[in-house]
Amino acid sequence: MKKFISIVLFMVLLFSGVQNPIAAEVKTYPNSVNVSVHINKDVTLTLNGNYQLKNRQTGSKSMIPPGTTITVSSNSTTVTVSYTGFSQTSTSGFDVNELAGTAPLAIFTAQTDMRRGADTSYAKVYAFQTGDSANYLGSFTNRTTGELWYNVNIGSYTGWVPAKNAKLTEGDKLSLANVSNGLTYRGSFYLKKNGSQVEVINILDMEDYLKGVVPNEMPASWHKEALKAQAIAARSYAANMMMLTSTAASQVYRGYSSEDTRANTAIKETEGLLVKHNGKPIQTFFFSTSGGRTANVGDVWNSDQSSFPYLVSVEDKYEKSPYSNWSEEYSAATILKSFGFDSTAKLLDISLEIKGANGEVGAVTVKTSKGDKTVRGNESVIRKLFPLQSSAHYNSLYSNWFTMEVTRSQPALSVQTNSGTVPISDMKGQKVQTPSGEITLSDSIVSVQTPSGVITSESGTGEVLSVTLNGKGWGHRIGMSQYGAKAYAENGWTSTQIITYYFKGTSVSK
What we know:
Blueprint: H1 2-16, E1 32-40, E2 42-48, E3 51-55, E4 61-64, E5 68-74, E6 79-83, E7 86-90, E8 94-98, E9 105-108, E10 112-115, E11 124-128, E12 133-141, E13 148-154, E14 157-162, E15 166-168, E16 176-179, E17 184-185, E18 188-194, E19 197-205, H2 206-211, H3 214-217, H4 224-239, E20 244-245, H5 261-269, E21 274-277, E22 280-281, E23 286-287, H6 297-300, E24 326-331, H7 332-338, E25 347-354, E26 361-368, E27 371-376, H8 379-384, E28 402-408, E29 414-417, E30 420-423, E31 431-434, E32 437-440, E33 447-450, E34 453-456, H9 457-460, E35 464-471, E36 480-481, H10 482-490, H11 495-502, E37 507-509
Parallel strand pairs: 1-20, 23-36
Antiparallel strand pairs: 1-19, 2-5, 2-16, 3-4, 3-8, 5-6, 6-7, 8-18, 9-12, 9-15, 10-11, 12-13, 13-14, 16-17, 18-19, 21-22, 21-37, 24-35, 25-26, 26-27, 28-35, 29-30, 31-32, 33-34
Helix pairs in contact: 4-5, 4-10, 4-11
Protein name: Sporulation protein SpoIID
Organism: Sporosarcina globispora
GO cellular component, one term: outer membrane-bounded periplasmic space
């Protein structure tokens, strides 16, 4: 009886010594960042390095052999991950976790018994399943059989396994994943449902994330102090976000594929530095070009200026950019389409409502043969009214800081005034004598008595053929100008001086 109990106890210890037979630990990130990098019906990831797959629904874990390409698909309820000899489905998605440590691992490609010696005649001490891993300690070739064996360790067990059933990892190799969007990324991944598609979320340390941001937001060839200012601003922006995108909607992030040693140096020299106001990290916005002055946040966004005392207009006296000044011409047809009118409408007039202290536009009104319409909103709303046929400029006008010139067809009528003859379309603001006294016209839509009858300005005013917008800057113009930072750096400013100039009343610290 005692012998039976001893055997049972031995078996319990043998098979319960390690609950999850994964030799290496999942890498943790001191300051993790989550970035949505790819959404598609079907996704592939080629994993070059040491990774573990975890099913979030069941909790099961499997080592993925280095160099494996996994295929990920989704329907409305589940995500499926598959690769050679493996397939699992989950309603909660999967984690692809980068593994920590530098020791080489043996990843098992088949069910394998670990033995006390390098031969099948030795006693079994542990049983590995496909996808399990163990720490690799060394190798030995059995001279009798010529078979290569690996000495491995898992938990409290050490023994030998046939090399034909295991694949060794490179212990100190950087783990990188090639995703089917054409880019390569550091870190780990969460594969989740997004409708009927798969969303790939890259999870990595803040400092590694910035390596894929800074050279995409600012040329790495620019002055190092400008790059350092960009790193500080990008870090502070990301620190205030729960989830980031890889586009300009957050910050442009292109992963390991885009890293540059010059940008990496700037990131390292500013490691952990954040922009703070009253001791608390703030969300630091930045953009390409101010056009000479940055904007007050309350003038271009629907924000309470008093809540953001550090986002105020400042001069950019050194800034030089291709977008410091610009002009764009739009046909009447393009404008009418932007305002939702069909091709049969005629554009009779267009006017701007200035909102900002610098002259930023807050509303645009059109008068047409089919009615009038005013569009009012923040800078992005105004800019989208005037599309640019370029994805590089996000198909919208460079900024909402502009003036307008209107080109009209020849007006049918002109009117004699005290100052001379003017087209009827320019009658707004003119003084007119009426039977009840002198009045000032508040509109160009007027009625005029002619020998052939009364004619209104709709029949006597030249239609708008096109408008030319003359503006300044590129972007929302809130916070730090990137071209401005470049210019200040070239004039001897440090990254901290640049940051605290653009974000008034702030400090830079860890």
